[in-house]
Amino acid sequence: GDSVTQMEGPVTLSEEAFLTINCTYTATGYPSLFWYVQYPGEGLQLLLKATKADDKGSNKGFEATYRKETTSFHLEKGSVQVSDSAVYFCALASGGSYIPTFGRGTSLIVHP
Amino acid sequence: DADVTQTPRNRITKTGKRIMLECSQTKGHDRMYWYRQDPGLGLRLIYYSFDVKDINKGEISDGYSVSRQAQAKFSLSLESAIPNQTALYFCATSAGAVNEKLFFGSGTQLSVL
Hints:
The complex is a heterodimer of chains A (112) and B (113).
Chain A: E1 3-6, E2 11-14, E3 19-21, E4 23-26, E5 32-38, E6 44-50, E7 56-59, E8 62-65, E9 75-77, E10 86-93, E11 101-102, E12 106-111
Chain B: E1 4-7, E2 10-13, E3 19-25, E4 31-38, E5 42-51, E6 54-57, E7 64-70, E8 73-78, E9 87-94, E10 103-104, E11 108-112
Parallel strand pairs in B: 2-11
Antiparallel strand pairs in B: 1-3, 3-8, 4-5, 4-9, 5-6, 7-8, 9-10, 9-11
């Protein structure tokens, strides 16, 4: 079945550092890929998405590129802020039902 | 007002008690989902519903039941709560297409003592 593997956290960075959170997937067909973010005390919200190979999703300075050849969708940001501290979830949706499958989440802590 | 509202936000109960978590939405979406979040395990799907007459088990449905009372309402019940059901529970909705995102409620933190 479909699955998503994310790097384990927490990831701890200083403000303005470069961020990469790795995500790889296994799926039949051609899934859509998503990154969701969960700020403390809140539900998840969509950060960005990509629907086909080589698409780049971007939002709030975050980017991720759909790499079919490596089955990856790594999240990057050039300069993180304290306000980016949150848990990040990679997810995919494929097949006839399109029910999203989530990774385990990666906690990001950004220090001033 | 929030698009997806969960009640209660927090609940502490005892082993063996029956608990109902409620979810309502104003998005007009047909699809609704219940997930639980545990540290280190991410989100796991409990039940989902594609419309009022459609209910489906997710990967961890044992010990849970659901009711879709209307398009806008989807409740989750624990018939006899046990401590390993202590978790953060999320309701979500979506329009259903493959590219469509989920809209999440703020969650219910349930503790079973």
